[in-house]
């Protein structure tokens, strides 16, 4: 690889597997409040609806969603929602 080229390694995953699947192993990194936010994303809720359910402001929800995305190493809300849905529906053990 030349000095001008950069390497952007893809996340480790099974061939043909969803790119968000490895993030499920990182859910334990989330704080309890981030875990709540993560699970609400599985329901497809808006920030406003999540704020009402969590009794916080939309700004706080945006901060939680951003933290979830960073800790799970996912670059889109859609990817987080898909991971959250799989986590919630596949009976994966909840983080402690």
Structure characterization notes:
By secondary structure, the protein is mostly helical. It contains 4 helices and no strands. Helix 1 crosses helix 3.
Specify the number of helices: 4
Helical amount: 40-55%
Number of strands: 0
Q: What structural class do you assign from the helix and strand content?
A: mainly alpha
Shape: globular
User: What is the terminal separation in angstroms?
Assistant: 43 Å
What is the string of helix and strand elements?
HHHH
Largest sheet: none
Portion in strands: under 5%
Q: Rg, please?
A: 15 Å
Overall average residue pLDDT: 84
Tags for this model:
single chain, 96 residues, mainly alpha, 4 helices, globular
